[in-house]
Design brief:
D-Maltodextrin-Binding Protein, domain 2, 6-stranded mixed sheet, alpha/beta
């Protein structure tokens, strides 16, 4: 009897696993009733308002996309270096945080079409910026970079010294505290967070090190990427995408969305 019970239990487990494996990614999030979005503190894309609510261009757009699918949205702050593990482990359902479409990201995730242009830029104390007019002049500096970011990849490729921290916001703290000489972050973040009228009025961004594009990453083979592409086209055509972009001052970075 015990042996028969064990066999039946095994068969039941196999049947359950088969159903689970047959479930599509869209069916999975619909079953939960929510889309869990992996983010970091990254103004103007994802950041908290005075009430502790996540806002920003990406946050608002993610809410609108989730609503279009009849889903709630939940934002989960992650360590950027662990984004692929978090995604594949189903802790989150997508990475939507001003994510550069690098070769690594494209290989590991099912990505949306690009929706915004960006670049990696050098951040320096305002009183020292004139001493570093070109990339070669930066070679002896230590750069604060977000672990696992496009900024870290660019500085590493140059062969310069890096100090890896948990977020792009933390790189600015490093430079302001003079524990790192410089930082490399996304240009969209630099425009929002440093200079006159910000908390980092003594910092400036100078040299651009590359050009790149942002996209949203889902689990490999997820049909949610295609759903998002359709949503982005519709939002671009009806003006709602640009309306959100203008709210956060990133309209100049937007990429036209067209049907494939």
């Amino acid at each position: 009897m015990k042996k028969l019970f064990a066999i039946l239990l095994t068969l039941a487990m196999i049947a359950t696993m088969s159903v689970s494996f047959a479930e599509t990614d869209l069916e999975y999030v619909q079953g939960k009733g929510k889309l869990v979005v992996g983010i970091t503190d990254f103004e103007p894309m994802d950041y908290k308002d005075e009430n502790g609510e996540w806002i920003g261009f990406d946050a608002d757009l993610a809410r609108a996309f989730a609503a279009s699918l009849g889903l709630d949205v939940e934002f989960m702050e992650i360590e950027w270096d662990n984004k692929i593990l978090e995604l594949n482990g189903r802790t989150i359902d997508c990475v939507w945080n001003g994510m550069t479409l690098t070769d690594e990201v494209l290989a590991a995730m099912e990505c949306s079409n690009p929706y915004a242009n960006n670049a990696q830029v050098v951040i320096l104390p305002a009183d020292k910026a004139e001493s570093y007019p070109d990339v070669e002049s930066l070679k002896d500096l230590s750069f604060a970079v977000e672990a696992g970011s496009a900024g870290e990849a660019v500085v590493t490729e140059l062969g310069y010294k890096t100090v890896a921290v948990t977020s792009q916001a933390a790189t600015l703290m490093e430079v302001a505290a003079q524990t790192s000489d410089a930082a490399v972050i996304d240009s969209l973040m630099a425009a929002a967070m440093i200079g006159e009228g910000t908390g980092y009025a003594n910092l400036v961004y100078t040299l651009g090190l590359n050009s790149e594009e942002y996209g949203v990453g889902f689990r490999k083979d997820s049909e949610l990427a295609a759903k998002l592409n359709e949503f982005l086209v519709a939002a671009y055509e009806d003006g709602s995408l640009m309306e959100i972009a203008e709210k956060y001052g990133v309209q100049a970075a937007m990429i036209e969305q067209v049907k494939e």
